[in-house]
Design brief:
single chain; mainly alpha; Arc Repressor Mutant, subunit A; Tetracycline Repressor, domain 2; elongated; Homeodomain-like_sf; TetR/AcrR family transcriptional regulator; transcription regulation; Tet_transcr_reg_TetR-rel_C_sf
Length: 187
């Protein structure tokens, strides 16, 4: 593992423990065993580092959605939806402690949203809807299904379960199969 990967791993650790708002680049660099100058050699700023953590240290939900959209018929519909639900649960469970502090002030949230420039949380929601549209094209999801609403129901349930597990400091229930079956009954 090189310095960049070690810094991303350290950032994930620090952000999980302290949240994005309180994780400083100085502490992240020190945790990784590098100088702050080395951190800035790889990353423009803390937001750039945050995006790397979200993309590299959390379950690859976005990549899987791209894969499923490109070839939706490769596996049974239920298997694909269970896979999305399982990854959604894991993604939000691991990401919640990192990202929640961004909401600690309106100014921080506004600044962070501006810096993300379209790479915010809506991307996953749009990815699930795009995948479900690909399934509609195959005839495996009813043509009348509101795929945006179905995507919101699935990811919203995943987010809620991650929130509860984080709040209660408990292990999340493995609801992926049940979430998928309930959603599929409506599709």
């Amino acid at each position: 593992m090189g310095s960049r990967e070690e810094i991303v791993a350290a950032a994930a650790k620090v952000m999980r423990e302290q949240g994005y708002a309180h994780a400083t680049t100085k502490v992240i660099a020190k945790t990784a065993g590098y100088s702050e100058a080395m951190l800035y050699k790889h990353f423009r700023d803390k937001t750039d580092l945050f995006l790397s953590v979200m993309g590299e240290e959390l379950p690859a939900l976005g990549a899987v959605l791209g894969e499923l959209t490109a070839d939706p018929g490769r596996a049974p519909l239920r298997d694909n939806v269970v896979r999305v639900a399982r990854l959604g649960l894991a993604f939000y469970l691991e990401g919640f402690p990192i990202a929640v502090s961004v909401f600690s002030s309106r100014e921080l949230l506004r600044s962070h949203r501006e810096r993300l420039g379209g790479h915010g949380p809506r991307g996953l929601l749009d990815g699930v809807a795009k995948y479900l549209r690909a399934e509609q094209a195959l005839g495996r999801v009813d043509a009348g299904t509101d795929v945006e609403a179905a995507a919101a129901l699935l990811l919203g349930a995943c987010f809620q379960q991650a929130f509860l597990a984080t709040f209660e400091e408990s292990e999340p229930a493995d609801l992926a199969d049940r979430l998928a079956d309930t959603l599929l009954a409506a599709l």
